[in-house]
Amino acid sequence: MASDEMFELTGDKGMGGRGLTQDEVYGNIFVYNFAGHDTMAITMNRALYLLAANPEVQEWSREEIHAVVIYDDTQSKYQEYYPKLNRCLAVLKLKDTPARNSSALKPLIAIAKSTGAEPQPLTLNGKTIIIPSNTRVIPNINAMHSHPRYWGSDALIWRPNRWVLSKKSDSETRIQEEHLPNKSTPEEEFPFSPQKGTYVPWSEGARACPGKKFGQVEFVATMVSVFRKHRVEVVPEKGESIEEARKTAEKSVWDSEIVLLLQMKKPELVGVKWVEVE
């Protein structure tokens, strides 16, 4: 049961807020779990296949886990650990598209908006365009998440380390040009913050997904839990080399379709296994 203190904390008394009722808190918790369950499960599924197909990214993530997390702790230390697990969070951000595949890695869901009851102005290249009232607007997120202007010449390559910068770099807003592994150590790193409006998988602004942070923490916690003592590997079919199996695994991620949400068409074509490591 949620405590009385929890309900009191939901109200911003400095702003005259009334707080949330118990039913409202429970309702929000239900939506978090119901609406976020499949999206995070699908994202984790795709991430595990990609990590199996790209062992160098997996080891890069495991290096951070071992550098940050103290395993003999009796309790998890969210405030201490989570802000330092930038590489694990970078794996979550599956915005990238494989260069060898012409179809974009689509977002899990479309973000449909409306102008509402009044016409809305849109400034584009110095000109103002008026969009009529009650017009549905669906941003082209695929194009935005792979535009070279914002993501560099390798925008179509899955490269999680683009999301991690080093304190030694010349600019805090520069995307790393180095390919994995990073030359920096986890202690020297901090997350890359993209230009506003260029990365919106959770939407943006006042009506952004309220479960964004919940999902991010859930993903990072799962990464730490499963990779602290294990790694995931592809299982080649008979007559298939390990490299061929990795390519098949990655291809199966990009071969996705929208049913209710985005999902891989034929995940059963690729076998993976968990291997315990020291």
Automatic annotation (TrEMBL):
It comes from the Eukaryota. Gene3D superfamilies: Cytochrome P450 (1.10.630.10). One of its GO terms (molecular function) is iron ion binding. SUPFAM superfamilies: Cytochrome P450 (SSF48264). Pfam families: p450. Residues 169-195 are annotated as: Disordered. Residues 169-181 have a biased composition (Basic and acidic residues). InterPro entries: Cyt_P450 (IPR001128), Cyt_P450_CS (IPR017972), Cyt_P450_sf (IPR036396), Cytochrome_P450_monoxygenase (IPR050121). Its cofactor is heme. The keyword Zinc does not apply. Keywords: Heme, Iron, Metal-binding, Monooxygenase, Oxidoreductase, Virulence. Belongs to the cytochrome P450 family. This is Cytochrome P450. It comes from Botrytis hyacinthi. The lineage of its organism: Eukaryota, Fungi, Dikarya, Ascomycota, Pezizomycotina.
